[in-house]
Amino acid sequence: MSQEGRYRRSEQMLERALRTIPLGSQTFSKSLTQYPRGVSPYFIQRGAGSRVWDVDGNEYVDFVNGLCAVTLGYSDAEVEAAVARQLRDGVIFSLPHPLEAEVAERIVEMVPCAEQVRFGKNGSDATSGAIRLARAFTGRDRVAVCGYHGWQDWYIGSTARNRGVPKAVQALTSTFKFNDADSLEAALRAHSGEFAAVILEPMTFTDPAPGFLARVKQLAHQHGALLIFDETITGFRFARGGAQELFGVVPDLATLGKGIANGFPVSAVAGPARIMKLMEEIFFSFTFGGETLSLAAAAATLDKLKREPVVETLARRGESLMRGLRALIAQNRLDAVLSVHGHPSWSLLQVKDAPGCTMMELKTLLMQELLQRGILSVGTHNMSYAHTEGDVNRLLAVYAETLPLVRGAVERQTVAGLLRCEPLVPLFRVR
C-alpha cells in the first residue's frame, strides 16, 4: 500500500468520530493532539503480545501499551482465562464479590504502605480519593503537587488546562519542583499549617536525587501533612511493591492504577488502617468499583507478577533499549537535541529545539518515520513482559534507519521540509 493510502480507513473513522466525539477520542493522549494527522493511525483494531494492528491492517510493535496500562502484553492468556471464567458468573452484583477482598489482600501483601485498600476505576479516582481522605484526616484544605495526577479539579486547576475549574479551587493547590526540596519547603511555609497533603510521582523520567524522597516525607510531616505517592505508573512496574519499595521510602498513602490488571480498568487507594478507616466516613463510592472482570484480571496479573520475573524482564529489556539508543544518538552526533531518560521499564526519548526547527517539528518527524516503519511510540518506551529481545532489536534497527535522516535534516535545517503533515503543537506540560 502506498504511504498516501496507509491510513485511509483511520482517517475516515476519525472524520466519523469527530462528528459525535470531541477530539474523536476519550483520552487526550490517544487523540490527534498527540499523533500527527496524515502520517498516523487513529484507531487500533486488535492487539496480541507486543503487537497491535490498526484498522487499516498495519502492524506495529507497540511501545505505548495503553499508556503503560498493559504490563504483561495484549491478550495475556492467563488474564484472559480468568476474565472468561468470571464472565460466566457475572460482572456486577447487588452486594460485594469475594474478589474485592482477594485482590485487596494481594495488594496489602505486595505494597509496603498498604494495610487497607479501596478500589476505583481510573488513576484520577484514586488520587482524588487520596486527597479527600488526607483533607478529612488532617482537617486542612491545601495540597502541594509534583507530577501528573489526573483530570479532577483539585489537580488540573494547577496546570494550563484549567478552564472550567473555579479559581477558589485552583488557589488551594501549590506546585513544587522534582528534586528541589527547597521549592516544596517554600510552598509549605507560604501557607504554614494549611496543607493536608504533599502528593508526587516518586519518579518519572528523572531519578530522585539521593535523599530527595526522604526529605519530602520529612517536610510533609514537619508541616502536618500526609505524604502521598502517586504510583499509578510506578506501581507494579518499577518493583513489585512500586517505587516505595525500590527507593525505600514509604508514604502515608499510595495510589495505584495502570499496573494492577493488564489493561482492565481498576485503580486503588492504599494505606495504613489508621488513615484508611476514614474511608468509612468520607464519600468514595462507585457503582462499578467492585466490577468483577477487572478484579479477576487484577488477581491473575498480580499472581503472575509474584510468580514470574515480570519486573526484572521489563528492566532488562528496557536497559538494553536505552543503552542501544544512547549509542545510536552518540554515533549520529545528535547529543545536543536527543537524549534518553527514565526508568528502563518506562523511558523517554527527549527532543530539544535545534537550529532551524522546534522540538515539536523534530518530534513530529521522528513519529512520522517510526510509525511508517511499524513502531507505535509517542517518544516513550513503555515496556511490557511480552516484548522480546527481537522487539527491542527491531526498535533499535528502526532508530538506526531514522537517526541519520534526522541528523541530515538538522544539519541542513530541512526538518520542516521532510514533514508530510502539520507539526504537532504542545498540549500542556505535566512532567
Largest sheet, in brief, is: 7 strands, mixed
CATH topology of the largest domain: Aspartate Aminotransferase, domain 2
Give the mean pLDDT.
96
CATH architecture of the largest domain: 3-Layer(aba) Sandwich
Shape: globular
Low-confidence stretches: none
Please provide the ordered H/E string of secondary-structure elements. Answer: HEEEHHHEHEHHEHEHEHEEHHHEEHEEHH
| CATH homologous superfamily (4th level) name of the largest domain | Type I PLP-dependent aspartate aminotransferase-like (Major domain)
Strand-residue proportion: 5-15%
Helix content: 40-55%
Integer count of domains: 2
What's the total number of strands?
14
Radius of gyration: 22 Å
Describe the secondary-structure layout.
Layout: H1 8-18, E1 44-48, E2 51-54, E3 59-62, H2 65-68, H3 77-89, H4 98-110, E4 116-120, H5 123-138, E5 142-146, H6 153-156, H7 167-170, E6 173-175, H8 181-190, E7 195-200, H9 212-222, E8 226-231, H10 243-247, E9 253-256, E10 267-271, H11 273-276, H12 292-307, H13 310-331, E11 338-343, E12 346-351, H14 359-372, E13 375-376, E14 380-382, H15 389-412, H16 415-418
Parallel strand pairs: 3-13, 5-6, 5-7, 7-8, 8-9
Antiparallel strand pairs: 1-2, 2-3, 4-10, 9-10, 11-12, 12-14
Helix pairs in contact: 3-12, 4-12, 8-9, 13-15, 14-15
Textual characterization of the structure:
Helix 10 links the parallel strand 8 (226-231) and strand 9. The chain has helices at 8-18, 65-68, 77-89, 98-110, 123-138, 153-156, 167-170, 181-190, 212-222, 243-247, 273-276, 292-307, 310-331, 359-372, 389-412, 415-418, and strands at 44-48, 51-54, 59-62, 116-120, 142-146, 173-175, 195-200, 226-231, 253-256, 267-271, 338-343, 346-351, 375-376, 380-382. A 7-stranded mixed β-sheet has the order 4-10-9-8-7-5-6, with helices on both faces. Strands 1-2-3-13 form a 4-stranded mixed β-sheet. A 3-stranded antiparallel β-sheet has the order 11-12-14. It folds into 2 domains: 3-63 and 310-418, Alpha-Beta Complex (Aspartate Aminotransferase, domain 1); 77-307, Aspartate Aminotransferase, domain 2 (3-Layer(aba) Sandwich). By secondary structure, it is α/β, with parallel strands linked by helices. Helix 3 (77-89) runs antiparallel to helix 12, helix 4 packs parallel to helix 12 and helix 14 packs across helix 15 (389-412). The chain is 41% helix and 15% strand.
